[in-house]
């Protein structure tokens, strides 16, 4: 299973293709059966108004996307003003008129007219109609949209309570079908969430068990039962989850009903198997045949998981699904720079995997199969392989795939179970949208079925032949993470979601030395500049390609020495293991990116001019640059600034922060190994005195600094003090009072996760970290309550321990400053966590402000301030943040696209983050740096950074003075 996890796609698919392949005779029979199923499906698609509505507004239309976006957010918005903004945003721009009268359903056409009316009311160009109903129009539309959203909820949710859901399953339209009830809820964010979900599962089991003869079952999601269901928290979450699942299984066994564990993201698979395996082996459950699990066929390990389930030695109900987290799995793999994807990148490859897994399940000794599919070809293939046996069941999502199974169930004796979500519509719709997106994607069978241009042969094309034709290769539009950026190689990550890898990484870090192991004497500032000045000319004359190649070799060396460098970051800068990994990756990314930019941007450029004249612009090194780095990114920023200056042709004196000299020593040693001449890069450690002497040296031709605004101002003044000194460029990146603005359309669970990451990761010691959370007052108390619960789960401790979320702050001075401030603000604390005894641990603290204007200073640690703003004042709120004078990062959480556009237009910040966390800028993707009190620019990791390190020199040569312009004189007659 480990070998398959990130194996190459062709390698994994080769045996699957043979396992999934049909003989010619089988293929003919399957096609005949699939055509009959297709006819039933199409008939059902044309019967219900909901099916026709979804066909009319598919995901390949802006109108379909608008409706789904509205459905995802509308019911959680408590205030009418924001609800009206959301409606206007989603309905106002779409072309509803293009859909008018097109459907066979009167109800669908009526709904379209309603949407057209809605646009007329909320759109900017409503004309006479808008004026006529302006007074009552928006409340009317709001009520109508609310009713429509609740109706959509009823279509896809079986019931708001388990009792309501069971009553609905007893209706005639569900005759012959059973249900698997999923007590709806996203992953738990707090202990209270988990306890609530556990009780809902327990109540569902009891309710279903009261009528066990009906054959219904309950599905359980492990992430709903524990808010820290993460590999790094294995020792805590796995035993707790095992105990909870065992309790639920015991209840289900006592009542004689089935219980299935749902599948989740790939990083949780091995934990899930540990939990399921433990519960399956419990002696108290012997004789109960109702225990089961779901397997996602899009995963490369799917077939191995089925083999694992069969080998448990007890009956297991296995639900085979295509998979629900495909896009997020792709993104995570790319972001983390992992070797390959844990899943297939082509839809047809997932279909092949599904068929191979299905064949294994039908032939397994201990597996009772359940095949969840809306694909007629898949169903027909399973029927062909199953022959006369009925020892399996089909499954479909409630509200999807109607018509596919009715004849099979009611006339041919097959079994089908409906996967039936249960819960309130407000909580349902984020889930609903994900399922609609999953089943409505352009490549899905459900979407293709609605496409009138596709023939039956195209709909039922053999996925085995499709994949064989491309040799099982990865989708060409989904590059491997290493190739993500094209021009430069993406840095490699470590898959810390694999427990063995995480443990080995932690052990390697613990065993590595805490020093760089170099004994060379450190030069003073004057000596360092002497050496760099002497080396400058030779380095500047080194060809650009050679300088770029040296940076690329340095990036390779960083990755080869990843564990020792991570160990220095953990032991010297108190970084957690994920942060230490990010440090090495970012440093390598800077080196490769600046090498690529140098090759693209630093060559002489020919400029236009009159005949007989050669004009060129040259980019050349300025001389000696001083690069002064902070302790919070002692490798990434230290090397990023230095690598940029070097590749631009400058010699560099690099001064690390006094708190983190050892990681700087290691970095400089690797740079010299990569080919940077010893004196072209000189390390100059020391405290503020060393930095001041370096900046004051008149031979320094430029300064790149990252740190506090106050220090940046002192550097700027020093550079201007000597009237005889040339004007020296200063690149400064400083801090900020970084705010995240949250409106009432935002998903609270996502907001809380992003706040925890942005405010408390790295102990809040990032210049980009969230300092001020601005919540719309209509939702503030609910979000704060969830945030407090999520804070309770944070682990403070040794940064080298994989379970640690927050380590100590950097030094005693920082600790004292932060603790004094906390003490002064104690009357306004909302939440503060206990800190370990000993060590410089500042407790994560939440402080309520009466007004956002009360915060005018950056507090560089795990302290988060909270204030509120009123609906309808987003522009004013952004303006008040701008007025503070800082301009580094800002976040916005909103489902209203126009709010995002307003923030883009009005926010005076270097980096604006919408619906995501505010930290972790990626080199080349999110160039980083601020404005105002937050820096000078240009932005690090961006396309304009290198030029600031260069002197621009224009050369103009009169070629006519040396015998005339031969090219001009030799022109032909132009066709005469």
Automatic annotation (TrEMBL):
One of its GO terms (molecular function) is L-glutamate gamma-semialdehyde dehydrogenase activity. PROSITE patterns: ALDEHYDE_DEHYDR_CYS. It catalyses: L-glutamate 5-semialdehyde + NAD(+) + H2O = L-glutamate + NADH + 2 H(+). Its EC number is 1.2.1.88. Pathway: Amino-acid degradation; L-proline degradation into L-glutamate; L-glutamate from L-proline: step 2/2. Gene3D superfamilies: 3.20.20.220, Aldehyde Dehydrogenase, Chain A, domain 1, Aldehyde Dehydrogenase, Chain A, domain 2, Single helix bin. Residues 50-156 form the Proline dehydrogenase PutA domain. It is an enzyme of class 1 (oxidoreductase). InterPro entries: Ald_DH/histidinol_DH, Ald_DH_C, Ald_DH_CS_CYS, Ald_DH_N, Aldehyde_DH_dom, Bifunct_PutA, FAD-linked_oxidoreductase-like, PRODH_PutA_dom_I/II. Keywords: NAD, Oxidoreductase. This is L-glutamate gamma-semialdehyde dehydrogenase. It comes from Sphingomonas canadensis.
